[in-house]
């Protein structure tokens, strides 16, 4: 696989402001009940004194290039598409949770039927030329769904203009 | 046995297909393509800045999906987390489905099902009984912003006018700030965000947690930042938007007004003010100069706890760069709320932040009160032509519980409530519950069984906003979309205006409530010819308000008596001569009602100042009961500083008790971290009393000014909504916390 | 249902879980007889990977269908996978089929046995000093992993 052309779901932590719209648009898109959270926004507090800051990081699925979940799955239910999206063939899943223990990000969810489900990068929408629901809806425009190469280019362009102004960084007197 | 729902004979069922943008549209749901019968455009009428354009997919008269309206220039096809939660909300099996009459005691929440005919008969009998026994003014509505659109209130007012019921006036969330702003600036406007995003050098956000209540501002904030603009945020609480700030000022709660005076002091002392603007467009600068004399950086730091270096840095930034002031409402939820706004407006004026693409002032748009400013012709709907309208007293919603307790000649004995959580949202829950218990009639029109329905005599099944007409201009941006029903109401739910129209007919006012008049007809009457109405009804819309109502770059002029910005507010001064309260023409700082500085003895017992933000998860008390939201929000939490936790032996995740003389909360999860400074704790507002997390068990009923409405028991015969206030002072509440 | 959740980033492979499991179930410390084993493997890129070999109470347990005597059952209400006390002929079909190697031949019972979560108070969780093992449902585990990853990614090591 040529990993540069792999699709990825990139979330810019500089832009994410913790509104959690992605959590419910994803639930609606995937018709999920309470329970499985295909994307989840984490809140992290860092720093001391005047350096204190709140940060947000939504974690859907990383659709890893070298996916540990795919390797851990004993039945071959988990697989990676040509374009990089990691999907599960539910009929093959026995609900053994190995993918959950293998995933460094805790992505796999287990629904009422005990089988694994997770973020699919809305591949059905992508196949129609549309964007994943979370990316399309994000009010802060923090989510980009594109190939790794394109995402890298977009981020570089975005921040080359404002390298010293975007980071919430004051020169002196803070 | 399956439940059946009976058709309501007088309910209007219109052809909703006429609002379709498109028909037979395929849409993805759960990985499968479903064909929606129609897609309809509407907007969200909740009490938030964004008033998002929405696109709703309907199948078999059920809402199956919702998206942001992609053609909306401000909300750009995006929705907040609540937007999508509307689908499980409107389809919730827990919706109130039919009228119910209380069978137990008030507070037990025990009801029996009755028919709409029986419900109407009950109301008519009760109303006649109260009118005979006490008088027609013994009845008053309770309505607020659960669905903030203005049409239903106007139609209801038509009925209250005919009945001669008491009139509900005022607000309890922002009018104190409005008074401070109108008193100095005059009529209120907002400048569309794409203008300042392109031109401003600094953006100053005060009391505004955009990630929770204004997420659609972010693309504009980021655009400005990419151009090199700086973001300064003032908020005691470390919020999502504060995390993006170049400078986050953390004033002691209630001292933003002092902070503003300190900044004005520094700017004037160092000759940094916009002299041209002050010379040409303001009056009263010398009095302001004298007022701020004592507000040295040292003194300001002492009062606000903001390090003086930060005060100076911010002041210089605002004065020497083009600064856009985007003022929220958090900073005025203290008993000194109108002073805060007055001081901030003066700060903006000293910096010349009015009337420019690069530097302007945004407190609220006059479109927030379309009936007051004239865009909505309230009288065209509320005053039936040819009818004899008896005079009626006004009851200020910010003191409703006091009014119910104290009103005489006549006492308030009957309340019909819709679109507002009287018990969960008013301060001092126990005091409010006692008031409700003293009523002879308490009717609630509700979507779910809430805190309020527990105490109701009659519960009527309400419609979701997606099932109703509405006129709801945004109070932040200048784009408008008329709300239309996207689907027929389910079960026996009835739109609010149809309830009032039928009640009106049954009370003998048939000629004023024609049977075939639709919500759209009423909406046309309300808006009149202020805009091209059809251009903003689905499938059309949204459209920008006219330049006349919403100038692109407002505040070139001021419609104050002097025609200028008034550092010394002549209208507040005049008003203060006639009414009790705190009508200081200058923004003189004074401590909020309860604080470590104002009430040191009380603070010995209760040293922690609890503030209560509006979180992203809910709009006030709505959405709280939905499974998605409960899962995402988690259990009730109180955020506190590491110092306060340590000195109380509280670790992150411990269950705590929060209490003061007014009430207590138990089993709240302590979250120990960086979000608050020592002495301040935070717990989200809007959690339900019966689910154990209502901060209003602790808050005090002490509405902010300028007018002292408590002195009048909330009963008024002369009231100016733009100058008298009031705001509920939720945030000046002292508590103590201990581990369970 | 609640399970033994395993955070491999915290596991030090100290062996305490196996030791206390055998102690709890058999009265002696005999790690080979424990119903939980931490297995280390080397990935292609040389990185060490740890897994907890312990019954997962799978949604569709292969041991149930594999068992020649039909004595393995999944409770339709609780999801708990259990074995009848009598009847095991030690054919090892379940051990061979189990994708995580959770079935252990107990030398006293002469039967294949699996983790029964100690009736709801798992001993291994209590003894795990690094917090790698916990007793939670997969949703809680997922949220905990996500938060823990975010802390590392965004916290930039500033967290104490």
Task: Fill in the keyword field for this structure.
heterotrimer, A: 174 residues, alpha+beta, Alpha-Beta Plaits, two-stranded antiparallel ribbon, two-stranded antiparallel sheet, 20% strand, C: alpha+beta, globular
What is the global morphology of chain C?
globular
> In the CATH hierarchy, what is the class of the domain at 55-114 in chain C?
Alpha Beta
- Average residue-wise pLDDT of chain B: 96
Low-pLDDT parts of chain C are none
Into which percentage range does the β-strand content of chain B fall? 15-25%
Structural class of chain C: alpha+beta
The interface involving the most residues is between: A-B, 50 and 59 residues
User: Helix-strand pattern of chain C, N to C?
Assistant: EHEEHEEHEEHEH
Assigned CATH architecture of the largest domain in chain B: 3-Layer(aba) Sandwich
Count the DSSP helices of chain B.
Answer: 25
**Strand line-up in the sheet with most strands of chain B:** 6-5-18-17-16-7
Helix content of chain B: 25-40%
Q: What is the end-to-end distance of chain B?
A: 45 Å
Q: How many domain regions of chain B? A: 4
Quick one: overall form of chain B?
globular
As an assembly, this protein is heterotrimer
What is the CATH architecture annotation of the domain at 55-114 in chain C?
2-Layer Sandwich
Termini of chain C, distance in Å? 32 Å
Indicate the percent of residues in helices of chain C.
25-40%
Largest sheet of chain C: 2 strands, antiparallel
Gyration radius from CA atoms of chain C, angstroms: 17 Å
Structural account:
- The complex is a heterotrimer of chains A (174), B (740) and C (160).
- Chain A is α+β, with helices and mostly antiparallel strands and 174 residues long.
- In chain A, 24% of the residues lie in helices and 20% in strands.
- Chain A has a two-stranded antiparallel sheet with strand order 1-8. A two-stranded antiparallel ribbon of chain A has the order 2-3.
- In chain A, a hairpin with a 5-residue loop joins β6 (109-110) and β7 (116-117).
- Chain B has 740 residues and is of the alpha/beta class.
- Chain B folds into 4 domains: 16-90, Phosphorylase Kinase, domain 1; 100-173 and 375-530, Rossmann fold; 191-363, Dimethylsulfoxide Reductase, domain 2; 600-739, Barwin-like endoglucanases (Beta Barrel).
- Chain B is built from 25 helices and 28 strands.
- Chain C is α+β, with helices and mostly antiparallel strands.
- Chain C has a domain at 55-114: Alpha-Beta Plaits.
- Chain C contains 5 helices and 8 strands, in the order βαββαββαββαβα.
- In chain C, strands 1-8 form a two-stranded antiparallel ribbon. A two-stranded antiparallel ribbon of chain C has the order 2-3.
- In chain C, β2 (37-42) and β3 form a beta hairpin.
- The longest helix of chain C is centred in the C-terminal third of the chain and has 18 residues, at 138-155.
- Chain C starts with a strand and ends in a 5-residue tail after the last helix.
- The mean pLDDT of chain C is 91.
């Amino acid at each position: 696989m040529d990993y540069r052309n792999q699709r990825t779901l990139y979330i810019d932590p500089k832009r994410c402001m913790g509104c959690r719209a992605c959590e419910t648009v994803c639930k609606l898109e995937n018709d999920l009940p309470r329970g499985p959270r295909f994307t989840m926004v984490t809140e992290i507090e860092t720093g001391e004194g005047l350096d204190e800051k709140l940060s947000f990081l939504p974690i859907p699925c990383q659709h890893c290039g070298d996916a540990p979940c795919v390797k851990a799955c004993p039945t071959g239910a988990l697989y990676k598409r040509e374009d990089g999206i990691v999907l599960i063939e539910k009929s093959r899943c026995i609900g053994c949770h190995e993918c959950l223990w293998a995933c460094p990000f805790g992505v796999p969810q287990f629904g009422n039927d005990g089988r694994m489900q997770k973020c699919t990068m809305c591949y059905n929408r992508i196949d129609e030329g549309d964007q994943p629901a979370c990316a399309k809806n994000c009010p802060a425009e923090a989510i980009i769904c594109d190939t790794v190469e394109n995402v890298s280019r977009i981020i570089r362009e975005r921040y080359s203009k404002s390298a010293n102004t975007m980071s919430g960084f004051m020169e002196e007197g803070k | 046995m399956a439940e059946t729902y009976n058709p309501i004979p007088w309910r209007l069922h219109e052809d909703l297909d006429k609002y379709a943008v498109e028909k037979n549209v395929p849409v993805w749901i759960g990985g499968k393509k479903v064909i929606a019968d129609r897609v309809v455009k509407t907007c969200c009428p909740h009490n938030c800045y964004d008033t998002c354009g929405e696109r709703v997919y309907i199948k078999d008269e059920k809402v199956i999906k919702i998206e942001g309206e992609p053609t909306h220039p401000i909300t750009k096809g995006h929705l907040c987390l609540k937007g999508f939660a509307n689908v499980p909300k409107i389809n919730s099996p827990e919706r109130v489905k039919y009228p119910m009459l209380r069978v137990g005691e008030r507070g037990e929440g025990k009801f029996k099902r009755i028919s709409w005919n029986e419900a109407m008969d009950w109301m008519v009998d009760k109303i006649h009984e109260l009118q005979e026994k006490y008088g027609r003014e013994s009845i008053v509505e309770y309505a607020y912003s659960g669905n903030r659109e203005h049409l239903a209130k106007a139609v209801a007012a038509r009925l209250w006018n005919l009945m001669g019921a008491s009139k509900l006036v005022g607000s309890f969330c922002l009018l104190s700030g409005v008074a401070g702003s109108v008193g100095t600036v005059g009529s209120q406007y907002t400048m569309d965000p794409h203008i300042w995003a392109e031109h401003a050098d600094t953006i100053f956000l005060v009391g505004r947690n955009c990630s929770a209540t204004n997420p659609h501002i972010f693309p504009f904030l980021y655009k400005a930042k990419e151009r090199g603009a700086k973001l300064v945020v003032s908020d005691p609480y470390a919020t999502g938007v504060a995390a993006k700030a170049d400078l986050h000022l953390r004033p002691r709660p209630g001292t933003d007004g002092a902070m503003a005076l300190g900044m004005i002091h520094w700017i004037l002392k160092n000759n940094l003010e916009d002299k041209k603007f002050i010379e040409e467009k303001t009056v009263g600068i010398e009095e302001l100069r004298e007022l701020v004399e004592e507000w040295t950086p040292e003194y300001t730091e002492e009062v606000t706890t903001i390090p003086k270096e930060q005060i100076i840095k911010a002041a210089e930034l605002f004065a020497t760069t083009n600064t856009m002031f985007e003022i929220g409402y958090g900073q005025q939820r203290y008993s000194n709320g109108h002073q805060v706004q007055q001081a901030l407006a003066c700060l903006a004026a000293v910096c010349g932040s009015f009337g420019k693409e690069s530097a302007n002032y945004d407190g609220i748009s006059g479109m927030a009160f379309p009936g007051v400013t004239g865009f909505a012709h309230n009288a065209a709907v509320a005053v039936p032509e040819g009818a004899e309208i008896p005079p009626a007293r006004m009851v200020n919603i910010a003191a409703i519980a006091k009014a119910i307790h104290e009103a005489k000649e006549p006492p308030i004995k009957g309340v019909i409530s819709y679109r507002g959580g009287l018990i969960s949202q008013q301060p001092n829950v126990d005091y409010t519950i006692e008031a409700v218990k003293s009523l002879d009639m308490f009717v609630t029109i509700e979507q779910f069984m809430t805190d309020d329905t527990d105490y109701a005599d009659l519960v009527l099944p309400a419609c979701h906003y997606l099932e109703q007409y509405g006129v709801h201009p945004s109070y932040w941006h200048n784009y408008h979309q008329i709300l239309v029903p996207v689907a027929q109401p389910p079960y026996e739910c009835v739109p609010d205006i149809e309830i009032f129209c039928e009640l009106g007919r049954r009370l003998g006012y048939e000629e004023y409530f024609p049977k075939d008049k639709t919500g759209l007809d009423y909406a046309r009457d309300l808006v009149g010819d202020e805009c091209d109405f059809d251009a903003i009804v689905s499938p059309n819309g949204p459209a920008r308000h006219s330049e006349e109502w919403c100038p692109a770059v407002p505040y070139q002029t001021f419609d104050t008596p002097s025609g200028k910005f008034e550092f010394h507010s002549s209208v507040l001064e005049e008003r203060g001569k006639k009414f009790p309260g705190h009508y200081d023409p200058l923004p003189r700082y004074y401590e909020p009602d309860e604080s470590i500085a104002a009430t040191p003895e009380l603070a010995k017992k209760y040293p922690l100042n609890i503030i209560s933000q509006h979180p992203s998860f809910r709009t006030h008390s709505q959405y709280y009961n939905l499974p998605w939201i409960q899962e995402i929000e988690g259990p009730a939490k109180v955020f506190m500083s590491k110092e306060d936790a340590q000195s109380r032996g509280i670790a992150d995740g411990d269950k705590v008790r929060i209490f003061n003389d007014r009430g207590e909360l138990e089993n709240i999860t302590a979250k120990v971290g960086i979000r608050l400074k020592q002495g301040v704790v935070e717990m989200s507002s809007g959690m339900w009393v019966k689910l154990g997390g209502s901060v209003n068990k602790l808050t005090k009923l002490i509405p902010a000014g300028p007018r002292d409405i408590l002195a009048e028991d909330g009963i008024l015969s002369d009231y100016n909504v733009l100058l008298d206030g009031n705001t509920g002072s939720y945030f000046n509440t002292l508590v103590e916390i201990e581990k369970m | 249902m609640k399970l033994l959740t395993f955070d491999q980033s915290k596991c030090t492979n100290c062996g305490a879980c196996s030791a206390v499991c055998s102690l709890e179930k058999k009265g002696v410390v005999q790690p080979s007889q424990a119903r939980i084993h931490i297995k280390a493997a080397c990935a292609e890129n040389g990185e060490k990977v740890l897994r907890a070999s312990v019954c997962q109470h799978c949604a569709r347990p292969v041991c149930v269908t594999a068992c020649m005597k039909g004595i393995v059952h999944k409770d339709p209400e609780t999801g708990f996978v259990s074995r009848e006390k009598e009847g095991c002929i030690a054919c090892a079909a379940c051990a061979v089929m189990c994708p995580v190697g959770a079935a252990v031949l107990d030398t006293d019972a002469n039967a294949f046995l699996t983790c029964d979560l100690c009736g709801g108070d798992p001993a291994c969780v209590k003894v795990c000093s690094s917090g790698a093992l916990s007793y939670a449902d997969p949703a809680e585990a997922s949220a905990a992993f996500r938060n823990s990853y975010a802390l590392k990614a965004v916290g930039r090591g500033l967290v104490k």
